[in-house]
Here is the input.
Amino acid sequence: MKAWLIERFGTGWLETWKEIKEHPVPPHALNPIYCLGGLTFLSFLIQAVTGIILALYYRPTPEEAYASIQFIMEQVSFGAMIRSVHHYAANIMVLLVMLHMLRVFYTGSFKKPRELNWVVGVLLYLLTLAFGFTGYLLPWDQVAYWASVVGTEIMGGIPVIGKYLMILARGGLKVTEFTLTRFYVAHVIILPLLAILLMGLHFLMVRLQGISEEL
Ligand code: HEM
Ligand code: HEM
Here is the structure.
């Protein structure tokens, strides 16, 4: 298999892989608080796997959304379990990302030369919240509906651009079926694509700059 790949793609990729595989973890980063970023990533992967499974049965229309959730909970094999994992891991991810941010702040790792990675981190934080916010509307029950009304209303309170942002998020002046479509597209297409892009950038910068030294 290895020979087959080398014949076709040369040895450059092997060296890159060896470098990644054999890169030692610096002793000061063996502290468990340095695991929080990786754990945030793990919870994201769990969300991606369980989310894709949910998307096989979930239907994003006002007529069918709630019924499809009931179907997932009552008829689909392991459906209730998969939905619970998606629910709990969503909360855990928000908690972990905050703790990771606190670790980075506590160890002063946001300072030169890592300012830009802190900025990417802030975007990742907002992205995580946006995942939670858009996912919450999807069951299309009373709690989901009113949480989205209030959430988008708060968005509308931002000076100058707020009203336009609210209309953009709602797909009109009120929370309607267009809002459900928008939140669904954001939740399963736009946000995951942005997450892959920003996490790729975040990890690349960590590797290029190395993990920050001890205090
Ligand atoms: C989805 C969200 C995020 C993921 C998956 C993630 C992942 C990671 C990972 C795996 C590392 C390597 C070291 C470690 O694990 O502590 C790291 C480092 C770092 N992260 Fe994050 N991160 C996220 C969000 C954030 C946020 C919200 C901030 C700050 C606002 C941030 C700022 C940084 C910085 C500055 C470093 C370099 C730290 C150093 O060199 O010591 N990250 N991130
Ligand atoms: C990455 C790919 C993802 C996909 C394909 C996906 C897909 C879905 C689908 C189809 C639903 C509707 C089913 C339901 O409401 O139970 C849902 C709900 C939800 N998602 Fe995701 N999701 C993803 C990532 C995430 C992430 C990263 C978070 C949070 C940080 C998140 C938070 C939520 C929440 C809070 C709900 C509502 C759960 C509930 O009804 O109890 N999702 N997601």
